[in-house]
Amino acid sequence: MRKEDKSIAIEKIAKALKEYPNFYLVETAGLNAEKTSALRRACAKADVKLMVVKNTLLHKALEQIDGDYAELYPALAGPTSIMFTNVANAPAKLIKDFVKKDDTLPALKAAYVEETIYFGADQLDTLATIKSKNELIADVVALLQSPAKNVISALTSGGNKLHGILETLSKKEA
To answer: In b/e form, how buried is each residue of 22-34, taking b as 16+ CB within 10 angstroms?
Structure first.
């Protein structure tokens, strides 16, 4: 590969790393053409960008962008593909579905999700259940709204009961 081509590839990888907040490093080298095509289709359906990269180019791209990715460098051995995503758990779910069909591949090497590094295939279950920042914010807002709704509901129903009792008492006296 020419030096100019390497520079272009590094820029392309760095651009994708900046564009997506989450990425997974996976090994897909053992997949045959049919399974690779199926994986690419599943990635496209799940809004996950799949890119096969050279480890040295990925290493240089990680060095160019802001952040400390040194913990990921040991995972840059052997064939590597990157799954870029905006939804933190989408690639983990996708990988789990494929592992059910084929016991070995694609294998998770490492992941950078919600500003945390996960290392090893044993983290797949954790990553599949992780919630994104937006999901967590929605949960907190729902929890904060719940007591207010309960108070308003109690006041409304209590007012109706009180009104009904007063009305019944006024009719009895007459």
So the answer is: bbbbbbbeebeee
